[in-house]
Structures are given as C-alpha cells and as structure tokens.
C-alpha cells in the first residue's frame, strides 16, 4: 500500500530537556523521523523545548516551535499551522503522555488531526499495569504474579497475597521512577508510598520479583499489512533487578537457545499485534528463567525507545526513519534498506559482529547518593562498542567511557580489598563490571562470583580468560612477545597502554611501535545489516584485528571531527549538536567529512550524517590509527567538548594539523595559571589568584589572595572538582582530594568575588575580526556553575558600560589567543567592575541556545572560518530575536532524593529548556528578577 497522500503536514512531539531516563536518543529518533517525512514531501513541524538538540534546528524541520510541552502550546501550533497528523512516538514518555492529554480533552478531534504511529488506546493498554497484565493473560503470554493497587490498603493486601520479594511498578512513569524492590515486610510501607506518589494516576503494580532471571529486549517494526519484523535482540549482561538503562547490554543475545529465542520472537509479535491497530516501532522486554528458560513479559512500549537508538546503530537499520514511513502508510516491502540500497526494508538485519553497550554514571556529581543500582535508572549516558567478539567489544566500550580506564582493568586502577569487591558484586553500582575482573585477579572462584552477581556463566568465563592472558603476558618482555600472542591480545581488545602497564617499564608508544613492526594493525569492517551477503553503500565502520580492511581511503581532502563520547553532566547533547553542524559545514565547504564517536544516542553517529562514520572509542590509540589510514588535512577538536580537546597535545606531537585555534593557544586558555598571567598582560581585571601544586602551597596562596577562595583544577569541564572554601582546613581537604583524583594537575586558587553577578559572552573570531554572537546575564550569582544558572539573552539589567567592557575584553582575548572559530568567556560583575573568570576557545554549551534564540547557524559559520574557507565579512548575519530568551537548567535530583541539592561551582544539571518572553513585566520573568535580587542581597 503506498503512503497516505492525505497526510501533507505532520507535527512531531519532542521529549523536552535531557533528564536521567530520557536523553538524546529521542533527539536522534525525532531528527531521523523528521528527515524521513520530508523526503516524502511532507511539511514537518516540531515542538520541543530543548535548545541543545539538532532536532530543534532548521536543517531538520520546516517549522520549529521552541515551546513548553503543554496542550496549550500544541493548540497554539494547531491554530497557526494546518496539521494533518501528529507523530508522538519519537519523543519518549513525555510525548506519549502529552498526546494522551491532548486526546482526552478532544484537541486532536477539534482540529481534525490524526494520531499516527500508535493507537492512543494502545498507550493506555501498555501504561496501565492492570490492563497490560490482563491482556497478557488473555493472549497466553506469561507474566509474574501481581495485583494492582490504588491505595495503601490495597497494596498491603497484594503483598500479603503474593509474598516477598516483591517489585513495585508505578503506572505512567519514565525510567522506573518510583519503582523498587522490596525484600521484606519492614521495607514495604515506604516503598509502596513512594510508588503511589510517583504515579500520576496513584496506581502501582505489586508484582512477584524474579530476581536473578535473565532480561532481554526485542525491537520490532510493524506495517499496515500487519507484517512484523524483529530488528534486534538485546541481552542484558546484568540479571533482572537492574534497570535496563543501567545494565550492560549485548547484541545479538549470547546465551539464548534457539527454541527460547523463537518462543520469544513469537510472543513479541503476538504482543505487538494485540495492543492496537497501528504501524510503527515497538520495544518488548522479557525475563527468562535461567534454569528452564520459562519466559515472562515485563513490558511493551509502543514507541521508539532508548534501545531503539542502540538497535539502529548496532544493526545499521534506521528504526525511526522506517517507523516514520510506516506511520504514513507504507509497507515494509515497499521501502528500501538504507544501507544496501538494493534489498528491502522487510529484511531482518543479520550481525556478524558483537555490540556491547555500557552505561555511563556521574555519581561524583551527586555526593552522598545511593549508588546501588535497581529499578530506577541512574545512568546519565552510554557508550556502544563493536567488535568481532564479546570481549573485544567489552574492552572497547570500557575505553570509550571517559573514566580514565584503558580497558577492562590492567591499568593500575584495580581494587584490591576483597571485602569491598564482594560487597560490590552483591550490591551492584556503576563499577561492578571492573570489580568482577578484580575478583578473578584475586583468585575468587567463578561460581562464587556467579552466585554473588547472578550473571550468566558464559559472560564470566569470557572475563576470567583475560586474567589467564595477562598472566601469560607477564612472562614476556616487549621485544620477545610472539606475534600470534600479540595478535590474540589485540583481538581480545587490549589497548597498547594496557599492554605497557602489564609489561612495566615500557611506554604506550613503544608498544605501538613494536606491534606495527610485527605488522599488527587495525583493519576496519563495514556495518552492513546483512553479514556481507549483499554489498553495502553506506560507509559505516568499526575496527578489529584481522587481515582484510574494508575501509578504503579516498584521495579527497578530508576533515576528521572528533565527537564528545558519552553524555554526562557537564558534557551533553549540545556538543553533539556542534559536531553535526561541523560535519555539515565541512561537506558544504567541499571536504570529505569523517566522524569518530562512540555514543549510540546521538545524531552525529547516524550513518548518513557524515561522509564516513567510524563508530569507535574517542580514545587516543583508536583515533591515531584512523588518522594514519585516512590522512586528513586536519582534525576538528573544538566541537566535541573536553573529550576531543584533551587529544590536542597528542595530535600536535604527531604533526596532525588542528583545525581552528591552535593547540598552544587552547592550552594557554585551559592552563588556569598561564591564562591569568595573560589577563594581567592585557590589563583585563581578574580576581587575585595563585597556582599551587600541593596543599601547603595552596594555603600560602589563599592567605595572600584572601578568603573566600575558589579552588579549581586546569583542563576540566563542567566545573569538575571546583569548590569555594573559607579557611585553611577546608582548603587543605579540597586540594588533597583534587590532586588525588587528578594527579599531575595544578590547582588555581582564586579570590572569590562574593555577591558578584555572573555573565558570559560567546563570539567568533577569524583572526582579524570578532563577532560577538551573544551576551548573557545570569540569574544566579557568581559561584554557581553557569550550566546550573538561568541565563538571559541579551542582558536585561547590566548597564551599557558593563556590556561595553564585556565586548572590549571579548575582542581583546579573541585576538590575544589568536582564535579561529569560537570563544566563550565568563565574567563576574561587581557594581560597574567587570572581571574575567575564564575563557574557552571552543564550542560551549550556550552556543546552540544562542543559535536557536537568534535563528543564526553559528556553528556552521564558525566551522567554515576554522576551515579557512570563509571570513566573517563573507556572512550576512541577521538576528531575529524580539524580546529575550531564557536558558532554564533542568535537574534530575528526583533520582537521588538523598543528596544535597545545593548548587555551587560544580555543575549538576542534566539538561536545559528555552523560554521566550517579549516583555520584562512578564510574571515568569519578574519571579526570576526577584530571585536574582534575593541571591545578591544574601
């Protein structure tokens, strides 16, 4: 059946700000869906309040509405645009809930808008725990014994009937919010109260807990002819009891028997067909008894999910893109496979490799948080790695995490306390994977580890084999390692730096040179959806150690863009936005644009965004070999946050050109002490400061500059390690802790300007001219991280004299640092005095916000200047903002109710929203002004 030609305009509902449990995977899904619909000549409108995303960019949709996600905003759009259909399945739970709310008040009916991609009744069936349970019973799919409860008394009665252990599952919540396990009667009352409070309908499912069972997810697509295909089967490394977003996951499933797999497929298809008559994507979660492979259904989500982005990147099959086409009437056999360009989309992907997803946690930002994992998701991001074997992919994933690990152990960061290790195995937190390896190294038997973790034996055997390999390696010296054994180590995922640590007294470069001399180099394999059965047209690669290399370097002039790795607090989706625009600008400028990144949630790792995609760790060894193969004219590090920036010195040492501001000037800005010296030479005011390399030096400096002082390390992002202290004792503790966690770093001690206002500017410099793209005034005072502060564009209360000084200092610094591209500067303002706090010659988290507010493609402009193809005078820049734009920080403290929510110099927000006002008398804005006055008066 061809597409429904009556649908000429579609509204896509986004997911709003990034929060734990709903992150940039929906930016990817929404962007893909919008581009897919535009291919069909459909006019696409998007509503989303997140300014940091590509989804809210003019390159994605015809009309972008940066509005709060409310039914009032929806109606505002429906009055302005003629919308034929709404697609709510690309924006996570937020979009589905908003769709239901609009449906309940008759909004879609009033404006004659059709809901596509899902049946509203299907949402009700899947989100209402009792309806879902009853439906599963009716269709013959197993479920755990459970009872619904709408009151405290009903919950107590259900618990008494079912027996412990139990799980509480609130209805209509995201990422397990409000849910949890109850092991005994003593814990039940508090858990039930939490669950009932978390559910918007005051409803929970009290269910028998199947702790220790295995967990699987299936990603499905269905068309209007009721054809269903399974895109990917994902197995959780961790057993039931840990939210799938917090679990290590593996595709394809490694430990399923064929019979169990076929049963699971059949049940998933039956479940999808039973929840309504709709075409689109669906995610189904199952639990499997490891003893007899009995299967029970956990839940079904009639939308693209967190796992859909992972499955798309794992297989190369663009789920959201195809789901959007199915939603407008196409059938699977009418659509083309996007990778091969010859086969049908009605063709289940086949993997001849293994992918491993490892979650990224940020517990260091939530001091005092309960780090034990359970039903409520706590991860802030994730990485994905591709290898020929599970263990190769697992080691590559560990290298991708941005936690200073060189792989799975063998890097000097092992835990050696057996009691701590065993506690970690029984009470899982973010680093349990590493502690499993540590346990094997200490000789803990495999069966003891299996009992403590309930992880399938097959996975544990894979990790245990690493310990034997490392024992074998220690028998050799670098110059006599047999080539076959060296090759085995690399095929098992060992990095050169791990091998150097295991050998001792040799450097990473020496290991690299030795293996190159032995002829052991990475080769690159294509992700093709079909295990090489058909030729693929899309250049999407991963590395391994074999003979044949499938990535052939062209003779075109190339640019490599280094991505930002996993999302975490302080480095989020805004850097992916910057990377995507960098790729687009490079292609427009005539370069072959090559992307290197390992984040499956992002648009930058969409296989058709770059000319060539390497889904690889942004880890020096991997980046180095890609550069040696491709021989680019240069590498862009300015757009990928600290992940990319920290490689600038190694690239410089290797003789690789850094596109844009050179390494020496970036390093000058990053080195807090040298930067303060520069400010002094430019006669730019700055807080009194000193640099220390020990606690003793720090105390001496602090007494010279005067308390209170701001303590901060160089070369960090998101305010990591920053603190304000008021005496010698607190300073000593802060400095000792910093130098312990960031060895070799120098600490800057600034006099803290108490009750000062904070402001910032972003600008672009081409080496001659400087264009200030935006100046923002913060609501929160200096001392609260800029990422956690409300920021108003343009300033609303700073005097013209203050703004003129900010502009003057921005221009001076841009020229002094010889900036080519972007520069962010943060200021403290006290009265009419303006002080520079820091400068960052790179993309900042505020540039996407300014670009959306003014409707100017600033990253595109900056990239072309970095590449040297344009000067500022070549661009006609017209700003369109009427009034003011406000950046609102969004927090995920609900995941960590026990932590101190006090804001300070270290960033804690997980995302942001944008709000526009036209009048300074707006009640919302007046409240912010009152808040600012209160802060400054304290």
UniProtKB/TrEMBL annotation:
Name of protein: carbamoyl-phosphate synthase (ammonia)
Top-level class of the enzyme under EC nomenclature: ligase
EC number(s) from the headed UniProt entry: 6.3.4.16
One term of GO molecular function: carbamoyl-phosphate synthase (glutamine-hydrolyzing) activity
Entry keyword set: ATP-binding, Ligase, Nucleotide-binding, Repeat
Gene name of the encoded protein: carB
ATP-grasp domain residues: 133-328, 676-867
Species of the source: Sphingobacterium anhuiense
Reactions mediated catalytically: hydrogencarbonate + NH4(+) + 2 ATP = carbamoyl phosphate + 2 ADP + phosphate + 2 H(+)
PANTHER family (alphabetical): CARBAMOYL-PHOSPHATE SYNTHASE [AMMONIA], MITOCHONDRIAL, CARBAMOYLTRANSFERASE FAMILY MEMBER
Gene3D superfamilies: 3.40.50.20, ATP-grasp fold, A domain, ATP-grasp fold, B domain, Carbamoyl-phosphate synthetase, large subunit oligomerisation domain
Family: Belongs to the CarB family.
């Amino acid at each position: 059946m061809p597409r429904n030609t009556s649908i000429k305009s579609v509204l896509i509902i986004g997911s709003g700000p990034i929060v734990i449990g709903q992150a940039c995977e929906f930016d990817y899904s929404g962007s893909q869906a919008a581009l897919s619909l535009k291919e069909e000549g459909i006019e696409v409108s998007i509503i989303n309040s997140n300014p940091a995303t590509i989804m809210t960019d003019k390159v994605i949709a015809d009309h972008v509405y940066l509005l709060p996600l409310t039914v009032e905003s929806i109606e505002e759009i429906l009055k302005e645009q003629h919308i034929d259909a709404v697609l709510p399945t690309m924006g996570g739970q937020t979009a589905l809930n908003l769709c239901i709310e609009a449906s309940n008040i008759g909004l879609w009916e009033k404006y004659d808008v059709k809901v596509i991609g899902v049946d509203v009744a299907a949402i009700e069936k899947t989100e209402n725990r009792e309806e879902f349970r009853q439906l599963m019973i009716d269709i013959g799919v197993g479920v755990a014994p459970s009872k619904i409860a709408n009151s405290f008394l009903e919950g107590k009665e259900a618990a008494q009937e079912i027996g412990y252990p139990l799980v509480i599952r609130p209805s209509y919540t995201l990422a397990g919010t409000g849910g949890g396990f109850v092991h005994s009667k003593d814990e039940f009352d508090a858990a039930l109260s939490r669950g009932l409070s978390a559910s918007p309908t005051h409803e929970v499912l009290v269910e028998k807990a199947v702790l220790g069972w295995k967990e699987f997810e299936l990603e499905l697509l269905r068309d209007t002819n009721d054809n269903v295909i399974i895109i990917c089967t994902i197995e959780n490394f961790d057993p039931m009891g840990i939210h799938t977003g917090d679990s290590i996951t593996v595709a394809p499933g490694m430990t399923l028997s064929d019979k169990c797999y076929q049963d699971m497929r059949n049940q998933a298809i039956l479940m999808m067909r039973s929840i309504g008559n709709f075409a689109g994507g669906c995610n189904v979660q199952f639990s499997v008894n490891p003893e007899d492979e009995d299967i029970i259904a956990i839940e079904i989500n009639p939308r693209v999910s967190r796992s859909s982005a992972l499955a798309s990147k794992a297989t190369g099959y663009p789920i959201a893109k195809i789901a959007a086409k199915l939603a407008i009437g196409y059938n699977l056999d009418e659509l083309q496979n996007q990778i091969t360009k010859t086969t049908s989309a009605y063709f289940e992907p086949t993997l001849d490799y293994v992918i491993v997803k490892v979650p990224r946690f940020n517990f260091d930002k939530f001091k005092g948080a309960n780090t034990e994992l359970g039903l409520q998701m706590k991860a802030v991001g994730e990485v994905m790695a591709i290898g020929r074997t599970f263990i190769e992919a697992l080691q590559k994933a560990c290298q991708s995490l941005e936690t200073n690990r060189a792989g799975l152990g063998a890097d000097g960061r092992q835990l050696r306390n057996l009691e701590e290790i065993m506690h970690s195995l029984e009470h899982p937190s973010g680093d349990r994977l590493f502690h499993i390896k540590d346990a094997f190294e200490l000789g803990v038997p495999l069966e003891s580890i299996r009992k403590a973790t309930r992880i399938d034996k097959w996975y544990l055997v894979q990790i245990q084999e690493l310990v034997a390999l490392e024992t074998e390696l220690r028998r050799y010296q670098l110059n006599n390692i047999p080539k076959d054994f060296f090759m085995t180590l690399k095929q098992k995922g060992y990095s050169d730096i791990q091998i150097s640590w295991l050998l001792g007294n040799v450097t990473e470069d020496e290991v690299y040179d030795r293996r190159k001399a032995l002829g052991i180099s990475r080769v690159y394999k294509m992700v093709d959806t079909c295990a090489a059965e058909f030729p693929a047209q899309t250049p999407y690669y991963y590395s391994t150690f074999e003979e044949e290399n499938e990535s052939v370097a062209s003779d075109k002039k190339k640019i490599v863009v280094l991505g930002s790795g996993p999302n975490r607090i302080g480095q989020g989706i805004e850097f992916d936005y910057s990377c995507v625009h960098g790729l687009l600008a490079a292609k427009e400028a005539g370069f072959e644009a090559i992307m290197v990144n390992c984040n499956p949630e992002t648009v930058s790792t969409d296989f058709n965004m770059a000319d060539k995609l390497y889904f690889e760790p942004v880890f020096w060894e991997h980046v180095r070999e890609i550069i040696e193969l491709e021989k680019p004219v240069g590498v862009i590090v300015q757009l990928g946050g600290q992940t990319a920036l920290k490689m600038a010195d190694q690239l410089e040492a290797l003789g690789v050109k850094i596109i844009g501001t050179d390494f020496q000037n970036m390093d000058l800005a990053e080195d807090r002490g040298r930067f303060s010296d520069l400010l002094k030479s430019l006669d730019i005011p700055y807080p009194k400061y000193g640099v220390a390399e020990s606690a003793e030096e720090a105390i001496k400096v602090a007494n010279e500059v005067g308390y209170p002082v701001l303590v901060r390390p160089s070369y960090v992002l998101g305010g990591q390690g920053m603190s304000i202290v008021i005496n010698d004792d607190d300073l000593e503790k802060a400095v000792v802790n910093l130098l312990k966690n960031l060895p070799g770093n120098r600490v800057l001690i600034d006099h803290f300007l108490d009750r000062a206002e904070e402001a910032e500017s972003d600008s672009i410099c081409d080496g001659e001219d400087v264009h200030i793209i935006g100046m923002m005034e913060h609501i929160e005072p200096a001392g609260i991280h800029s990422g956690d502060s409300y920021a108003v564009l343009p300033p609303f209360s700073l005097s013209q004299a203050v703004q003129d000084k900010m502009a003057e200092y921005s221009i001076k610094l841009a020229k002094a640092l010889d900036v080519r591209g972007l520069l962010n500067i943060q200021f403290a303002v006290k009265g009419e005095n303006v002080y520079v706090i820091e400068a960052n010659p790179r993309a900042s988290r505020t540039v996407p916000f300014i670009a959306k507010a003014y409707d100017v493609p600033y990253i595109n402009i900056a990239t072309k200047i970095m590449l040297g193809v344009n000067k500022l005078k070549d661009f006609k820049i017209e700003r369109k903002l009427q009034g003011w734009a406000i950046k609102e920080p969004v927090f995920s403290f609900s995941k960590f109710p026990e932590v101190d929510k006090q804001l300070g110099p270290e960033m804690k927000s997980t995302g942001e929203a944008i709000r526009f006002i036209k009048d300074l008398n707006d009640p919302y804005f007046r409240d912010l002004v009152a808040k600012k006055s209160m802060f400054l008066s304290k």
